[in-house]
Amino acid sequence: MSTITNGSAATPTTTTEPILRVRDLHVRFPTPRGTVHAVRGVDLELRRGEVLGIVGESGSGKSVTSMAVLGLLPDTTKVTGSVELDGEELLGRSDKQMSRLRGDKVAMVFQDPLSAFTPVYTIGDQIAETVRLHRGASKAEARARAIELLELVGIPEPARRVDAFPHEFSGGMRQRAMIAMAMANDPDVILADEPTTALDVTIQAQIIEVLRTAQRETGAALVFVSHDLGVIAGIADRIAVMYAGRIVETATAEELFARPRMPYTIGLIGALPRLDATDRSPLVPIPGSPPSLIDLPDACPFAARCPLVSEVCRSTEPVLAPPVGIGVAAVDAAAGIATDTDTDTGSGAVTAGTSLPLRAAGHTAACHRTAEVAAAHADAGRIFALPVIPDHAAAVEAARTDREPVVHVEGLTKTFPLVKGAVFRRKVGDVYAVDGVDLDIRRGETLGLVGESGSGKSTTLHQLMDLERPEAGTVELFGESLADATAHGAAGTRALRQRISMVFQDPSASLDPRMSVFDVIAEPLRAIGAPASRIDERVPELLGLVGLQAAEADRYPHEFSGGQRQRISIARALAVEPDLVVLDEPVSALDVSIQAGVLNLLAELKARLGLSYLFVSHDLSVIRHVADRVSVMYLGRTVEEGAVDEVFERPMHPYTAALMSAVPVPDPVIERSRTTILLPGDPPSPTDRPTGCRFRSRCPLYAILPEAERRRCETEEPEKAPRRGEDVDHRAACHYPEKVASIAA
């Protein structure tokens, strides 16, 4: 078993000189519509061993700042300011000169390792290449170093895997190999650009631990770019919040989360659902969208979205300075910087049009209204207008067992043939995509379906949505057996299709770009033969229901933001007044600020219309916030199910416990005191059907069991059962559920 306590990164010595210093960095991109001022006067300082987290919505300038430091922007880009690495100026250097530094003094971990690696070379060759280029090592020495690095980042059988190609690695293994390549030459600075995006939480936990290992082994400073404040809370020493190309607030991680002084920061923190929250109160929706970065006026760029906006916000852009009531002398004390400042106003050393260096300034914010924010005690509910969501309990007054069943699935199975050959194709095995799934949803209820990628979640959804006779097991929709309904052909399933609809993960791909929004929403109504008069009446009604204007119905999907497109998808799903809405990762591609608005909308629609949801997500914090019940899948099988609070507070399966331990909490104090259970490797191949418990190869509980109890796990497949003498509604497929609590002790 492998567990870690998420302690803070080593605090750097404040007397050492910065290894990376960025001053007044500006990045401009020429476009047909004008010049995009993507980065506007960014100042950063980073010392050895320090972790700086950079957060913000998409388009805020996070990644562009990192790419500018490495000199990886297009030749047409205009970059001004200063970037010093260990006292040497980098801006203005040729690509050949920068190539000598990249991978040696400064390295980068990219967001998508599949596109970052060259597909025609082995992983080992690509890692060895950087060792040979920068260290002058021989082929044998470079290969030995590559194997050593792969072992260090946790790649199993590194001596064999070193000869694998990128496509032969899983997503998590590719990211670990990317980190191995970044640390190959013991760089001074590692830039990690969204390194955990799109990864399962278990793999995310592994990657974060590997980054900690890389930093510890190399002594490098780390810049960690992410939109996930929970991840940042656990790893960063200092945090810089970016908006519209600027840093708008910076402080230590503990200070920023405890006392944010910029409304945008407060909104980002309040928009996050939390794994440790038991209430279902509305999340903070930040209204509107970030501004265009072409010809920005001299005003606060957040003014159009800020609930505290005043006339000064619309006429002058605030500088990055200590908030009112926090003097420069006070915030600089820890850095040993003497400043002659009025500690009552915090204005002594700061003049208009200037900003203080990120590190020297301590806690700084670019806001005219920090006094009002402080007076509200940084309470998002007192600053932002929260929606009023009706108590959905009123819609489901009856006891759960007395409510109408919506979905009842037992033992659902779906296999796919595994074939080989291009001309003469032959079956060589089976893929057990779904191999014993149980689901139970009642009227007015949300069931969260969770599990790692490859666990069979999407296949389960398609089995329900296709309305086909199951290969094995039973499926009942609204109390009617699917086998009986399909026996009558299309006529038997037509009524069922009208009662169930789906919202997909990517609205850009699921909405036809050639159709207007009116036609997109009207299409399901036309499919059931609704008259034109009913369609003309229903479409504006649906747009209003999801918070859009009826006048926007003649626009096309590409003219809307990502959050608005997802609202259009929800309107389309509600067009035929379904009883069950299936949601497949509906918020995973959205910024947290937009995600909050969509989750609030779904809660409101559920309460108002009495809907039932089957909600699939890899984000357990989202599931904790939206779901009434949760079903956990592993390798095609349901391994635990029950009321969401019961499962999250007292997991009975070690897989569930590991999933929850890997979900970061957006609070540095809490996050760094938690223990993460690291699951080794990736899930086994679904082409194998192992005997006994199929989780045992990764199970932290199995690893500490006595030999006699292990044999039971190896030979006997566990059936779902409650804890002895407890509620039958919470069940898990584990032989030793009473011992699960001990694995994180």
Automatic annotation (TrEMBL):
**Protein species of origin:** Curtobacterium salicis
Keywords from UniProt, A to Z, are: ATP-binding, Cell membrane, Membrane, Nucleotide-binding, Transport
Chain segments annotated as transmembrane: none
Provide the ABC transporter domain boundaries. Answer: 20-269, 407-660
Which InterPro entries does this chain map to? AAA+_ATPase, ABC_Ni/Peptide_Import, ABC_transporter-like_ATP-bd, ABC_transporter-like_CS, Oligopep_ABC_C, P-loop_NTPase
* Membrane-related topology note: Peripheral membrane protein
Lineage: superkingdom? Bacteria
Region spans: Disordered: 712-732
| Descriptive protein name | Peptide/nickel transport system ATP-binding protein
Molecular-function annotations in GO: ATP binding
Q: What family does this chain come from, according to its entry?
A: Belongs to the ABC transporter superfamily.
Instruction: Kindly give the Pfam families that the UniProt entry links to this protein.
Output: ABC_tran, oligo_HPY
Query: Entry's SMART domains?
Result: AAA (SM00382)
